[in-house]
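WARN no homologs supplied; continuing
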Amino acid sequence: MYPRMVSAVLCVVLVGMAAAWPAAQAAEPAGAGDRIQPWPENPYYWQFKGEPVLLLGGSVEDNLFQIPNLTEHLDTLKASGGNYVRCTMSCRDEGNVWPFARSGKAYDLDKWNGEFWRRFERFLAETGKRDIIVQIEVWATFDYYRDIWERNPFNPKNNSTYTAAESGLPTTVNSHPVRTENDFFRSDPGAKHLKTVLRHQERFVEKLLSYSLKHDHVLYCMDNETSVTPTWGAHWATFIRKKAKAARKQVEITEMWDKWDLAHPQHNATFDHPETYSFVDISQNNHNKGQTHYDNMQKQRRRIAGKVRPMNNVKIYGADGGRFGEARDGIERLWRNVFGGCASARFHRPASGIGLSKRAQRMIKSAREVTDAINVFACQPHADLLCDRDDNEAYCLAEPGKQYAVYFPRGGLVTLNLKRAAGSLSLRWHDIDAGTWGKAENVKGGGTIELKTPGDGQWAAVIR
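OK structure emitted
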């Protein structure tokens, strides 16, 4: 592993970038530097416990706090080099429990189900022990539509707290969430302001925060794949930040929109409003493949260059037999996200992704080894340093003059510009699929070199 030393020149440049950071990120209580937050020297990445950190992960389920073998699963992730999980506040799977207690046959929204909150509290404690960062999705969108809405406690027909007339909520919603036909997501003052519903929604979020604000390893995302109005997410971002401030805490918040195209106006609410959202989640871009997948993220990276924030990927699609490309597509997406300068990359749960399968574990471990072999936090995406390259043939991260890493999804031959790196350099190849390193060899800087992979498949070259 190479020393993590950032060049003085890069520090000056990136501190200038950080000057655009919202004023709300200023004064914090003593010890606040331990919390997860953008790294001030390069806010495209996260900092945790005072050190920059790249978030990598995968898991068997999205609402991990509801699974029985939690600690075993977290240990497997940690052993693979992972440090990042998703936590949807979802209750839709077999064996899950809802947050509210029953009163007879109906739920009482004024009474809590202790088992739900015990599971959540334990999850936060166990991830904290292992320094695993948790990205919570407060509203699990699909729990409020179709068959799940039929049994959701917030549904007026399932609780004794309010009626359909009192709440303004439907008892049946048969459409996909993209059509936003459940006014549960219009309760905020900027929309229909359904005060009866909003009171219980806010009570739920307050309860969630009573546990999560005790921890420094938590990120907050308002929704999963939402298509509702921006006022909904903004309401909850403001609400959570206000509660955190009262607890003398600062938190990092984002929203996740449904559209696969990051240039769609839906995404403007996060990309263009750092005062509301202190990081952006670009997971929906992980439906795309190849060069398009990479180019889309780079366009958005340039878009936020004046107000730099981490770009997270809490779910990466792609599984053999799935709907969103094969497992190989998902694996390439993870590596392109890393080499595209993203702050996090996590495989989606099985069926839609490869979860924390043996193959996922190998990929996480390899990604950790390659990024630990350079000072990734001093590097930037540098497609401009590659010549004689076909689409999706190779991707480059570099601190020109000092260190270079090149990723090949399926083997290849490209020319790398080393004109700013004088003298002799060390080149090592990492066989990503096998998880092994080759012997170091010398290459000459000051010009260009040909990089040809030792074989087919996935490879990474590290040059220092």
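Confidence is low (pLDDT under 50) at residues 1-26.
OK
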